[in-house]
Amino acid sequence: MLRIRLSLLSALLSAVLFVPALPAQLARQGRLLFAEDFRTPAVYTKEFQPAQPGWRVRAWHQDWVRTPEGYLASKWTTGHMPVIAFEGELTDFVVELEFRFTKIAGQKAVCRVSALNPALDPRAYAVSVWANADSAERPLGLVLERDVWKPGTITTVARESAEFASGTWYTLRLEVVGDRAWATCNGRTVQGRHEKFALPKTVLAIGTGHCPHEIRGLRVYAATANPAFVPPAANP
Fold it and tell me: Of the candidates 201, 205, 180, which has an alpha carbon nearest to the alpha carbon of residue 89?
């Protein structure tokens, strides 16, 4: 009887302690380039203004306000989705933020992180990731893409199904090293490569859907290649 109990205990411990190995992330996170918790008052204008040393910020589309809780809230009225732009140097980088939305019927819910270089690659996002709850503009779920603005084309590099609920905070992370990008949100991961991903980027743009969205804990880091990263066989 004692031997049986010990065997059962051993099996239970093995089940609890065993954690499947996850694929190594693309980037090795380095020096912090930009951090914003949105806790001090600020007014965002349509023109770039100083944000932190080496960085400027502008309300590219719609209005953006800071809340007393330390969140950045988008305010959509009509037309283009809200976009806030942070100007700084970021070629190989990691960006991470948290977002949530309050669903309103008829107003789309999505959080998008994009990086671009208007001088070298005008009218395009070099790389973007969408956490798309219900916008008809893109496939639903987590989407990695290269976007050339109209009348250009959108290249979907990778997509994974994902669901996002109103009132829930989600962490969205995008890593870019060379011509590869890796992104994760809500337990889903997308990765892939595109030649334009390797461009030096000078603007980080965050976009949201039309219903109320809040963002917190924005962090941008320099990045180098993770030697432990093994690309998928279909995309060597």
Answer: 201
Collect all residues with Cβ–Cβ distance below 8 Å to 145 and sequence separation of at least 6: 125, 127, 128, 129, 130, 138, 154, 155, 156, 157
Question: Residue 195 is encoded by which pair of tokens?
Answer: 């030649």
Q: Which domains are delineated in the chain?
A: 88-225 (2.60.120.560)
- 3-class DSSP state of 110: strand
The Cα 89–Cα 95 span in angstroms is: 13
How would you class 188 by CB atoms within 10 Å of its CB: exposed for 0-12, middle for 13-18, buried for 19 or more? Answer: middle
End-to-end C-alpha distance for the chain, whole angstroms: 53
Measure the CA–CA gap between 208 and 110, rounded to whole angstroms: 5
Q: What is the pLDDT of residues 123-158, one digit of tens each?
A: 999 999 999 999 999 999 999 999 999 999 999 999
